[in-house]
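Researcher: Sequence of DUF1156 domain-containing protein follows. Predict its structure.
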Amino acid sequence: MTQTQEAPVATPLADQPSLIEHAFPVAKLSAESYKERKAGSGQRLTGIGKWWGRKPLVLVRASILGALLPATDDPQKDNEVFERLMGMDELGLYERRTRKALSAAQFAAMTPEEQLKGAILAEAYEGPSDEESWKLINDHLGTNAHTLQEVLEQLGIMRFGERPKVGDVFSGGGSIPFEAARLGCDTYASDLNPVAALLTWSNQALLCATPEDKERIDAAQKWVYEEVDRQITEWGIEHDEQGRRADAYLWCNEVLDPETGYMVPLAATWVISVKERVIAELVPDDANKRYDIKVIKGASDAQMAKAKQGTVVNQNLVPPPTRDNPQPHQTQMGKLRDRHNNGEGLRAWQADDLVPRPEDFYQERLYCVRWVDAQGKRHYEAATPADEAREAKALALLKERWTDWQERGFVPSRAIEEGPRAGRIFAGRNWRYWSNLFMPRQLLTNGLFAEAIGRSDATKELLVLVGNVIERNAKLVVWNSSAAKVDHVFTGQSLSPIYNFALRPLNALRAIRIASSSLLTSGFSVSLNDARAIQQRVSLWITDPPYADAIDYEEISEFFLSWYEKRIPALFPDWYTDTRRALAVKGKGNTFNESMIEVYSNLTHLMPDNGMQIVMFTHQDAEVWADLAMTMWASGLKVSAAWTVATETTDGINGGANYVQGTVLLVLRKRGEVETLFDDEVLSLMEQEVSKQLKDMQLLEGAGLRWSDADLQLATYAAALRVITSHDIDGIDPHRELLKVRAKGEKSSVHRLIEQASQVASRELMPRGLDPSLWRDLGAHERFYLKGLETESRGEHRSGVYQELSKGFAANHWRELLGEERANQVRLQTASEMGNRSVNNGPLAGTLLRHVLMAMQITAKEGDPAKGVAWLQGEVQNFGMQQTRAIRLLEHLGKQALPHWAEDAAAARLLRGALMNAGV
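Model: Prediction complete. Tokens:
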């Protein structure tokens, strides 16, 4: 896209609010986003390459369309047109149906959930196909369009005087620029990270190729696989003497146990395949001071149970019994590592280390190969001397090519830089070069791919294929015994060495092909650039910025960059080949805040006065939200609307428990002239806005959407931002506040305002079924306890969720109320577990709830509710006035259905009945 002057504003929609500023079908959009996420590898961009935190394409499409469509005086028709264009109404869902034989009557008889389930993804919808729909759309909008691209172009001209220009300066995995270009917008994309820029460019090049280019790319990819297959077959390193071909190689580390003198293979479990009942069994070889590893197929229940016990338990080495040492012992792995090498720990690996040296603490051992015969049958077999000979041959072949391949960039030569993720690699194995993360066989296979791609007719387009191969073929890949398959490196964000890992031969890499296509698209430019320095003017910026220190993009992406760094300069001469760590917008504190202000001030400057920004944000820290508010304020922006869309979930949108994780869409405009208010005036407005936000979201639950408390809390932060950024606050300079050096625990004025808004929300987030008048009179820790029980009853046991609840309720001593604190097992104490502790000095001390819990414990223990009544009458001051409240509390607690609450819940019901019959 070329540089242009700011568009004039004298256009029909120049000053008219956008639909997204007034209405947004959050429930339907959440369901569509969930459907896209559940598609897994069927998501359009995931096959291009690995990235973290990609937003659903349907969310991007809805954001762009919502920003361009006008909000008219007929909101019902506005929404009807929006849903028709998105294909989210009943007619659109019928057009999207996968079963084309389904009649309109049959389709109409289905539930909305069934209709959505049987539809293609909304992002694949190409727009209405019937004249009646386009007449409805054109009549309402004043357009003359028959495609999505045409309607967006005409809306852009009506609003900005030109075809809409969309920009994203944190392109990452490329969702935003890809979808913007598909919708016909002129699109500008940039990122500081070359891996992100390559993915963004590749999305366009591979999925929006011309028919001729698609044919060339597909032929080149086919040739690459054939060439790699030809060479591997010629070498004979993947076939055995029976002509079978390897399908998986299972390796483990081995360490010397100083107490027994045995080399011990390491694994957390020796189960190889749960379904096929295949295990590895360690048999002591006393003569050679090691263990033979036998592979047993059709294992018995007893053998399966025994195999589940590995040689590494809770980071302790637990060697199997031997003749001389019949009693198993345990030794901490960390201590063994530290004692190694004369107390100096692990040796640092060098660039030319392809296998461990004999003196290294960790050795590597092949113990099982899964073969596939000519009939396609799989065979698990223990490693043989012939297998080991093939590994030695692979190493020799690699050494012959090593220097040449490193010079040409077909295998890594890059050192691993220091960083949080790298620290795990250094501590775990002391690998210091990216090549150290791969076995010789993997380096040979991956290098063959890189070399063949370099000789193909689609070298540039297939560069990301190298990244896809290495992400599935490294020493960090786990063997999944439940599915009996080789996993991949980034199942999360970790780069952690493992004891038991799996290698993919070529047969298991064949499925990694990249599917090209010829989707319609418009102008699209990608650059490597610092967002603070770009000069491109656009009318709509959509960004998904870094969330403080949530993801170390620049560090973990170096795993891929180590394989790209010498190829990128030849293919993209204007690009650099490092991740610009020093410039990365990340972390917390002044540097991050200053960077964010510079970025968003620049973007504000680079959009017309009637331009817009949409910021996609997901974070649960009130401090981060306070910083975001001040960033937008200091950048000359105000929040004109905010919507929470459920983009992640484990249990589903409809009927699922509250596991959704929402993404907040902040819609921003230039601030212009604003009113100055005092703190108390801002707080009053925030309370009104938060209350309205919660009521609006809770109304959506009638449409089948269930919000988690964390999502509702997130929405209140966004509501607070609307108020804060739309006003000046007396005595607060946002730039100075952001960059102020604070003492530990000191909070900014805006942070305190955000927390107050959060507490407003918490007061309204009453547990279902509890009497509102009772909730209103409870204290902070009482509210935390009762809301925590509801959270626990939904199966939520993450510490962070309870921590967020405590912040909302200002319950600073919440941990004292926990009965279990282990990760992902957090729960509250029951009445019986509390016993008579903390009646007078805990966080609930002296409260009616604490006395009620004590009376329940007495009733459960003594089996006599009269004794519980006696406690309440004797300990609760003015109990006659509190009796009704106590009965309501007992009614609520008696409904607890958690298994460990059964006895106490029964006691609550007994006690309630006794109290109702008792005199005062």
